[in-house]
Structure formats: C-alpha cells, structure tokens
Amino acid sequence: MKAAVLVFPGSNCDRDCKTAVETSVNGKVEMVWHQETELPSGLDLIVIPGGFSYGDYLRCGAMASQSPVMAAVKREAERGVSVLGICNGFQILCESGLLPGALLRNSGLKYVCKPIELTIENRTTRFTSAYGNKQTVWMTQGNGDGNFFADAETLKSIEDNDQVVFRYVENPNGSMNNIAGIINKAGNVLGMMPHPDRAFEEALGSADGAPMFKSLVRAAQAA
Amino acid sequence: MKAPTLKAKVHVFLKPGVLDVQGKAVEGALHGLGWDGVANVRVGKLLEFDLDGSDPEAAKGELKAMCEKLLANTVIESYKVEVA
After folding, report:
1. Per-residue pLDDT tens over the stretch A13-47
2. Residue A195 catalytic?
3. Contact B73/A95, CB-based, under 8 Å?
4. Under a CB-based contact definition with an 8 Å cutoff, are residues A168 and A118 in contact?
5. Which of A49, A110, A128, A219 has the fewest CB atoms inside 10 Å of its own CB, making it the most exposed?
C-alpha cells in the first residue's frame, strides 16, 4: 500500500501515522509538506494526522483546510482515493467541506486524554471491513475540541446514510449521537477523533487500530 | 501618495443554539463573583484590520467572502462585518 501523510506546521502525530502504516501493513509512506500543490502519484491512502496545525488559531483546522496541499487532497478524494483524518485531521476535513458537521469545544471544557472504547457502527466500509464481527474497539483520545456538531437536517442525513462509523460507548465530550467518526457519502473519506495510529500493536495498550490499515490494504488490492 | 485604506471589523459568534461552553464557563464565574443578574453569555471573536480601497460597499463584499472562505465556519458560526 502506498500512503502519504500530510505535515502541517503544528502536526504532532505525523510520524505516529507513518509508523502505524509501516508497522501494521508494511506500507510505503511519503511525508508531504502542506505547501505542496501536488501529491505523489498512485496513492492508495492519504492520512491527515493529529496535532495542532497553525496552533489551532482561529478555529482548529481552519487554516490548514485552506493550505495548498488540501486542494490536491480534494482532487484525489474526488477520484476516489482513501482519505483518513485523525483528530486534527478530522477537524481539517470538516473545515474543508470534505465531511459534514464541525467539531466544537468539549462540553466539559477539559482536554480529554485517555483510552476510549468505541462501537463499530458500520463494518462494511473500506476502513472497517477487516474488523470482522468485533463489536467494540479500544483506541486513545486526545483533544480539546472533539464535540461533534451538525444541524438537525445534516445529522439526520448522516444517520440515514449510515455515515456514522464509530460511536463512543461513554460520551467524553458532548458529541451529538455519541459520534466519534464519520465517513462521506461516497465512502472514501473517514474522519475520527480517536487515534488508530496510537493503537496499532499490543505494546501500545491496544492493537485495535491495525485492522483499519489492513482493511485499507484489502480495499487497495481489490481496486 | 499612499493608497487609501479602510478599517475593517469582523465579528464572529457561535450561532444561537450552538453550545458555547466558554460562554457558560464565563457566566458561571460571573455568578460566582456575585453578578447573579448575568445570563446567556456568548463568547465571540472580533477581528480588526486595514484593507486597501476606498469603497465601503465593495469592501463589505470582500469581507463577506473572507468570512465564508476562512474567518467563520458557517456550519457553527455567524458573522457581521463593519467598514469605517
């Protein structure tokens, strides 16, 4: 699998994402700086990592969503390339309009940093097919703005189209409908607040992130 | 001769109905200090900058475009522009 990991000023999970893809599925990963206007050719996956791009100034992910590389990501997403946004990456995908909704400040006002249990709501996506019959997974969460919000009409559309991929078992931040991760209608862009990149082998406390990368390899081979 | 500039102000607030946890926290603090009459605190942003041009109406159009593109997230925020 050939993957690109985007790097913004303030990204801090970019190397975690690279290691996760390399370790869990032996993928080939290129790091791509945010000022690039083109992505490498032949990509199977684009990862938008966690962190605090542009210091979270203005709004989390706002300025990153307007950076040159995101125009290239939009073109690749339209062509059907898989895009995975984790944490700040999820915020950037919402800000860029590639995913519906927005992430607000956590309802408890606290930065929530802990292992977290999620239910897999949709196991037919290209990101979740390798989870088999597994009902819940453990990953870690680390953010101050993870409170998913969408207006009533958008939320209904997300639910009606089975776009919710992960829900929190115990809601840590006030997210509507306990939403932890959603996918776009076309099924190739996933955004999630918890970190599969921090849960790809048992030594990290959980290997539940690894099947996500295995699912993506499967999808890439089938394509 | 110096190019004419306008003074721009952009107010950005969370839309009514969108939970403003910062506002809630500030409200709680004000209550704690004895200002019991305070209600519905909303925390927003004010951006001020200079903008080349002399036509306030054209400038307002530009400011609205800036808000739609970057300064506000219209999923959760509303904005108001002023030019002087």
Report:
1. 999 999 999 999 999 999 999 999 999 999 999 99
2. yes
3. yes
4. yes
5. A110
- Give chain A's domain count: 1
Burial (CB count <10 Å: 0-12, 13-18, 19+), residue A165? buried
Which ipTM score applies to this complex? 0.87
**Range(s) of the domain holding residue A152:** 2-222
Does the active-site annotation cover A34?
no
| CB contacts < 8 A (A, B) | 37
Which CATH number belongs to the domain containing residue A79 in this structure? 3.40.50.880
Residue in chain A lying closest to B23 (CA): A109
Work out the minimum CA distance from B18 to partner chain A, whole angstroms.
Answer: 8
Which CATH number applies to B5-83? 3.30.1280.10
Specify the pTM. Answer: 0.95
For chain B, domain boundaries? 5-83
Q: Are A53 and A65 in contact (CB under 8 A)?
A: no
B75 to chain A, minimum CA–CA distance in Å? 7
Alpha-carbon distance A191 to A189, whole Å?
7
